[in-house]
Every structure is written in C-alpha cells, then in structure tokens.
Amino acid sequence: MASRRKFIRSAALTSFSLSSVDLLAGRNSSPQKIKNNPVVVSTWDYGIKANVGAWDILGKNGRALDAVENGVKIAEADPLCQTVGYGGLPDRDGFVTLDASIMDEAYNCGSVSCLQYIKHPISVARLIMEKTPHIMLAGEGALQFALANGFEKMDLLTPKSRKDWMEWLKSSKYSPEINIENRKYSKENDPMPGGPENHDTIGMLAMDASGNLSGACTTSGLAYKMHGRVGDSPVIGAGLYVDNEAGAATSSGVGEEVIRMVGSHLVVEYMRSGSAPAAACKKAVERLVKMNPVKCKSIQVGFLALDNQGNYGGYSIQPGFTYAVKSQTVEQVFKADSFYK
Ligand code: GLY
Fold first, then answer.
1. Is residue 175 classed exposed, middle or buried when 0-12, 13-18 and 19+ CB atoms within 10 A define those classes?
2. Which one of 83, 97, 201, 219 is the catalytic residue?
3. What is the C-alpha separation between 125 and 115, in angstroms, rounded?
4. Cα(106)–Cα(38) distance, rounded to whole angstroms?
5. Known catalytic residue at 201
6. Which of 99, 112, 291, 301 has the fewest CB atoms within 10 Å around its CB?
7. 76 CA distance to ligand 1 centroid (A)?
8. Ligand 1 atom with the shortest distance to the CA of 239
9. Model confidence pLDDT, tens digit, residues 167-176
10. pTM for the whole structure
C-alpha cells in the first residue's frame, strides 16, 4: 500500500518528459491561414453556454486545449445539467460516476472512467495526460490520483438527482431515452440559453488561431446504469478523437454502440479520405445502423465533427440531436440531420 501511495505521489509530482510522448507531427506553431478559425463546437443546446467558456480562451488567441477544458467545466459544474458532472443522474445504486477524456493537437490524450466525488473529471483527465505515463485511470485509482493532486472530494448527488433516482427505483426499468427533455424547469429558471432541454454527454471540439485542434468529452453516463459501467466518452477513438492533419470528432448517445464501432476515430478517418464533417458523421451513422438495424430503431447516437479547415457538422440516428457553434461570425445552435426523420 505504501509503495502504491509512493507511486501515486511520484506520478503526481513528476512531470514525465513530454518530449517522448509529445508527438510533434501535424502541430502548427504559428498563426495559420485557415478558413474558419478560431471556432468551437459542442454537443446539444447547452453547448451554447459551454462555448462561452471556451471562447474566453480562444478569443484571446489561447490554445484550443485550454479552451475545451474551460468550456466543458461549465457543464460539469451546472447542477441542472443532469447528464454531466455535479448533479448528474446516478447509477442504479445511487452513485454518481463520471467519465471524461481530453485530446490535443499532437495525439496526447488522457481520460478517467468511473470517477466518483470529483466535480471536474476533465481536469483530472488532463492531468493524467500531462503528468503520468498513462492515458486512462479508473475508479478508486483515479480518485486517489485526483485527491493526491489537490482536487477536493464532494458529494455530486444533488437533491434533485436523488429524488429522480428514488422515483426511478419504484420501477427500476432501464431504458435510455432517445433525447431527454427535462421540461420541469421553466425557461426563466433555466440558466442554459437555448432552452431547458437536458441531454447526454457534452463533447466539445475547438480550433485555435494557430489552426490546432483539441477536444474534450465529459459525462455522468447513462442514467441508472449498472455500477461500474463505462461508456464511450473516456475511450479515446470512441467518444473522442483528434488528428490535426484531418479533423476531430466526438459522440453522444448510447456509448456501447459507439465503442463497438470506435465511432469518433471512424469519423476522423472519413474526413481524412475527403468527406466534409457532416458527411463523415453520416457515413459513421449509416455504418452503425447497418451493424445493428433493429437496435438502432430505438436508440440515439449523434456524432459531431470539426475538420482541419474549421468546417463543422453533425449527424445522428434519430431526430433531435443539436450542436452549438461559436466563432467570430456565428453563435448558434444547429439541428443535425438524422438517419430517421
Ligand atoms: N455517451 C455517453 C455514455 O454512453 O455514457
């Protein structure tokens, strides 16, 4: 135990030489002439608010990596956002367990899965990326790492989420909703511009003034999941992938299906082969529906993509998937096209 603690401490204190893992291929070091940058895109209506956090960094010529971390932290801290961070709906045993991942322009990445009691899992994921030789820490080990590095332990289950869980216990029926609409909040009481809809994972992709891409993805996962269940969000290539030479992609929806097809990596590869972002997302969704046509009739998966020129687009299985965009000229929520109409 003592040696384990020692390792955690030394991992926390030692900044592993990034030169060995910090691959420089594809990284831009000076401002680039790109069609549409800086720009930030993120999943669902509440991305509008999170994008403001990202723009605080991008608008001052900051780094895309800092922007996506700052942006998704807004959703993680919002108790009304019941699918991300603080206030997220718990698993069937009443535990709020969080998944998150982050990736920069040089293939550096970090993630946490099944992390409890920490308000900002995205920052733990970033620290894993920057201070350890690993990519993912899970469960108790991730918590120990976070606590050893100064993160505070807190109860993430809000009275509202506890009440919803107690209500769910009466039937204990596990059935993820296609698009969750939380209409109990009035628009006046809802701090989310864009309406009171309250959805799945927030995935955010950004390109900075230097033309570098980064992405972040964070969620409390499917409500009332089995304890220990991990979704696509912390799995690099599934819930998030970034390649400066091609583009970046993220996903929202039933994570098991996204993991099965390594969805975000697939979207990036379609962009590398010449597809525009929305077309790349569409091809990935069509592949998913072909893999499991029966199941896809009743589940939602949405992909969001940003290419290496700052073009963006999304596509989902079911109607209702939205994404928010902020750039120098656009601040808007778009409805993605879908396989089923
Ligand atoms: N896409 C989020 C999850 O399945 O956990």
1. exposed
2. 201
3. 10
4. 18
5. yes
6. 291
7. 15
8. 1
9. 989 988 776 6
10. 0.88
